[in-house]
From TrEMBL:
The keyword Zinc-finger does not apply. Keywords: 4Fe-4S, Iron, Iron-sulfur, Metal-binding, Pyridoxal phosphate, S-adenosyl-L-methionine. InterPro entries: Aldolase_TIM, Lys_aminomutase/Glu_NH3_mut, rSAM, rSAM_sf. It comes from the Bacteria. This is L-lysine 2,3-aminomutase. One of its GO terms (molecular function) is metal ion binding. The keyword Repressor does not apply. Its cofactor is pyridoxal 5'-phosphate. Gene3D superfamilies: Aldolase class I.
Length: 459
């Protein structure tokens, strides 16, 4: 049993600063601090009319190097950039903002632009699972054989937003794009009817935006579900608001809740998003990690490979080494999802493999728990294992780390090498095959709608 009230360095156990959010209404002031011209600030506001912007005082004061802004990687991680959207869209939105057009007119154009950005990759809205009465359960997804995702209604925001976030559509105020649930009893009934499910993942948004009282209402009932082996929490809060486990008023109560999960015989797994080594540097982060680990929880780390932010082997090697020293488990390097400003952030699959290989080869076996580069695509998590030449044909070697058809997990398959490919749908079958093994797979009860062609638009 951890002593959550144990003494810690005075700088950490001080009352701490109160959380303060900064949103689009603060953009002009903040981007001026970064040295942007009036016209550049207008372009930033135009992008923020389409994509969400939210940050907080901790990110602004502790993580961003303002002397290097706007080129600072953490600045680029949280602030919209003018070239994240097509120039013609930015120009039209800028014009509306410049002449102070009615809000409805601006929002109508912003909606049109959003719909071109594949707001729900991998058929997310088609994954809601039915209840026993075959009624939809919005915000609950039985994504893989043993895993159910739960989007708590009160967790549909974050302490700060990442500009690359593939769930950006959750935060733009369009109800039809949201995924959220609040009926934990219906989830329990579903689990009782599906004994194959051994893990529930709380995601969002960020579940750790919820207070301990609200979080308890979701987690505590699941401790009664015998078949569950693990409860997972996907969160960026360790990077963006580590005070959540150190100085926030309910920090100790939250840690006691985490202890209860272990006492119930289940693993609490933190899926912590760290995108850049600087996010690991503050003392507050180290203390938050220590306190979480002392409850018996396991912290696994993951992030996408993002151009202009972390697209070098040195950055990933530094992150994995630091995470290991802090007692965390490197888990995933993701490929940037086919949604939102993918063109701005995407790294080619060939380059992604090079970055992974060149960082992976320099770390110890304890860091090599990490998998990647992995695409969270419609049929599952596809890992790029390497580039080979067979019979004079250059190929990508791939396999499913996770798949909606469990029979395909860990079976290698091949695709023609394409130096420009950035996603699974850019690839074509190789070695005379007409289809990939996963093509024709039924997803969400509908084969045709989700038949992933080797070429064509992402779903």
């Amino acid at each position: 049993m951890t002593l959550v009230n144990d003494a810690a360095p005075a700088a950490v156990r001080s009352p701490g600063s109160r959380y303060r959010a900064f949103t689009a209404k603060h953009l002009d002031e903040l981007t001026a601090r970064a040295g942007l011209t009036a016209e550049q600030r207008l372009g930033t506001r135009a992008v923020a009319a389409v994509l969400p912007f939210r940050t907080n005082s901790y990110v602004l004061d502790e993580l961003i190097d303002w002397s290097a802004a706007p080129d600072d990687p953490i600045y680029r991680l949280v602030f919209p950039q003018e070239d994240m959207l097509p120039s013609e869209d930015v120009a039209q939105l800028s014009d509306l903002l410049r002449r102070e057009a009615p809000k409805a007119e601006i929002e109508a154009l912003a909606h049109q632009v959003r719909m071109k950005l594949n707001p729900h990759p991998a058929g997310q809205l088609q994954l809601n699972i039915p209840s026993f009465h075959e009624e939809p359960m919005p915000g609950v997804q039985h994504k893989y054989h043993e895993t159910v995702l739960f989007f708590p209604k009160q967790g549909q925001t974050c302490h700060a937003y990442c500009t690359y976030c593939f769930r950006w559509a959750q935060f733009v105020g369009e109800p039809d794009l949201k995924m959220a649930a609040d009926d934990i009893e219906r989830l329990k009934r579903y689990l009782s009817n599906h004994p194959e499910v051994t893990s529930v993942l709380f995601t969002g948004g960020d579940p750790m935006i919820m207070s301990e009282t609200v979080l308890r209402r979701y987690i505590e009932p699941l401790l009664e579900v015998e078949q569950l082996e693990s409860i997972r929490i996907g969160t960026k809060a360790l990077a963006y608001w580590p005070q959540r486990w150190v100085t926030d008023p309910d920090a100790d109560d939250t840690l006691r809740l985490f202890e209860q999960v272990g006492e119930a015989g289940k693993t609490l797994a933190f899926m912590a998003h760290f995108t850049h080594p600087r996010e690991l540097e503050p003392v507050m982060v180290s203390e938050a990690v220590r306190r979480i680990r002392d409850t018996g929880a396991v912290i696994r780390t993951q992030a996408p490979l993002i151009r202009t932010i972390n697209d070098s082997p040195e950055i990933w090697e530094t992150m994995w080494r630091r995470q290991l020293r802090m007692g965390m488990v490197p888990y995933y390097m993701f490929v940037e999802r086919d949604t939102g400003p993918q063109d701005y952030f995407a790294v080619t699959l060939a380059r992604a493999y090079e970055v992974f290989r060149d960082s992976y080869k320099n770390v110890s076996g304890l860091c090599r728990t990490v998998r990647g580069p992995s695409m969270s695509a419609t049929p599952g998590k596809v890992c790029v294992d390497g580039v080979v030449e067979v019979g004079g044909e250059k190929l990508f070697v791939l396999h499913f780390i996770q798949c909606r058809d469990p029979e395909l997990v860990n079976k290698p398959f091949f695709a023609k090498y394409d130096p420009e490919a950035v996603w699974l749908t850019d690839l074509k079958p190789a070695l005379g095959a007409e289809r990939f093994p996963f093509q024709g797979m039924a997803i969400g009860g509908d084969t045709s709608a989700h038949d992933l062609a080797a070429t064509g638009p992402s779903v």
